Amino acid sequence: MEDKTQEYHDELIKAIQENNCTNFKEACMFVSFAKSTAYNHGLDKLDSIKDAIDANKIRTKHKMKRNWVNSDSAVLQLAAFRLMSDSEEHQKLNQSYIDHTTKGKTVNLPSWLNDKHPEDTEE
After folding, report:
1. pLDDT (tens digit, 9 = 90+) per residue, 30-62?
2. Over the stretch 80-95, which tens digit does the pLDDT of each residue have?
């Protein structure tokens, strides 16, 4: 990395960590250089920047989930349970559930759906 890019990189990493930024555009609000400068130097493509942002996201999600589980609010507890449930548990929680998949079975379409219409033909 060239010197100026490294300087911008270090400042951006510091801003992400100090301000708990969860996306690149938000992080650019806390630095001394313009967002366009960050893009011009390719900072949005660096794994170190992406990893710092992802770490903040994971930490924030974990904190929220922990708060929801420990809450006295049934709505928050239900939201946490939905996040942690498998598909069978999730289906049981829903008031109504409609399976929109074929579960691997072939679908036999009526013959009229297979007919071509004049507007469907290529000229």
Report:
1. 999 999 999 999 999 999 999 999 999 999 999
2. 988 888 888 877 887 6
| Domain ranges (residues) in the chain | 3-97
The burial class, CB within 10 Å (0-12 / 13-18 / 19+), for 86 is exposed
pTM exceeds 0.70, yes or no: no
- Give Cβ neighbours of residue 9 (< 8 Å, ≥ 6 apart): 1, 41, 43, 46, 48, 49
Alpha carbon of residue 64 to chain centroid: 16
- Find the distance separating the first CA and the last CA of the chain, reported in whole Å: 55
DSSP 116: P
CA distance 58 to 65: 10
In Å, what is the CA distance from 103 to each residue of 75, 107, 122, 123?
32, 10, 34, 37
